[in-house]
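Budget justification note: compute hours in this period were largely spent on complex prediction jobs such as the one shown. Inputs:
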Amino acid sequence: MALITGAGRGIGRSVAIVMASLGADVVVVSRTKSELDEVLSASSKPGLGIEADLRDPLAPGKVVQSCIARFGRLDILINNAGLVIRKLAEETLPEDWDAIFALNVKAMAEMCRQALPHLRRNTGASIVNMSSITGSVGTPLRAAYAASKAAILGYTRVLAKELAPEGIRVNAVQPGFIDTAFVTPYLNDKPAAMLDVLNHIPLGRTGTPEEAAWPIVFLASSAASYITGQTLIIDGGWMLL
Amino acid sequence: MKPLENKVAVISGAAQGIGLETAHEFARRGAIPILLDVNRQKLATAQESVGAIEQRAASMHLDVSDKQQWLHTMRSVFDQFKSIDVLVNAAAISSAKPFEEIDADEWDRVFAVNARGVLFGCQTVSPYMRQQKSGRLINLASQAGKTGGLLIGAHYSASKAAVICMTKTFAAALAPDNITVNAVAPGIINTDFLNGVPGIQNFFGRIPLGNKPGEATDVASAIAFLASDDARYITGEILDVNGGLLMD
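Corresponding output:
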């Protein structure tokens, strides 16, 4: 039984669809009802959609409660919900920091905290957190976002150490340039910028949401049962150049 | 359709340990495993056990430090099976001794197998994969290659650091032809290899997941993932399989 945040679009949506196709009961969380309806209808197994804004500190608790009320259990948590702000560091205001960290980091941590009592009831429970290559490399115009993605890695390692005695695994992924609303709209009408990006990717193309989803599903699964505290880079080789 | 259905998957060091378990895992997923090893006796036994899962499995004697043998053997594989889809470089040697006691010959021998063997393997199969415009190269690195594993032998650890670097170099070189190159970096894994590392048991308590070594199947699973279509946007990556012993 898998709970996926930010599942209305992009990578989160793909993870939900892949997991449903593998027979999992899936709970998808998004702020946008129409997107929830779409991902549920695209899934091969009926799931549960929860409309929620995770920046509300009470939302994670309510989301987990709804999940348990419906399915009685929680095995896999995919913390995918996130937002990006594109500004120079010197123009990034205190409220920008608050906005980014409220969703990307604090909501992620609160989801873990709320899910834990339920995760520890099942063997093989695991958590996968969405970081980014931006968490490791310095991307201009992403100061707060990069800091939040790096924060996710630090948190992931600590949680992995703390939960290892209970057999709960915690890992992260660092996608590169994936075709989602985070990336594509900003490059589509800028051929020079797109060319720049493609020249920096050894595989010569951006990744599809599925290509980012499959490794997340692997890390969440028992095929990765000796893997914890790790981060898996999914970037077509971007970091090599 | 099985995940690796009909993929021709060559594995060096396949007669024991992680290499053998990888051959089993590949066979279970529908691949045609080609087992390579320098030990003929163990190779025959391995062939039987993998062949019981996948009857198309084949095995060939190979000293990975010999480029001519690589060329000859891969030509045979290609002639027989018409493609080479995956290469897993699992062959490795070591001896646990203080670094002060490693002489030039032993250093060279360890590098000849562990590092040059990977170079020769990748050099030999990449032309076939370039022609196919597809392929997977998966190298066995090691946590020791990142942390400088003193207990397992400085030459072994250094050779595994070389494997990590080569993985990235080859990934950049081969990506334009849709060939991915990745490595797994196992931590402490329960195979005969551990018998050659006295004192390793003292580290078990530091392993977060269960305070015990992983099994060869844990590493084989990660290798099988990297060989699959699910990993096709991953290249130049070093995947740590270590129960949380190292988080970097």
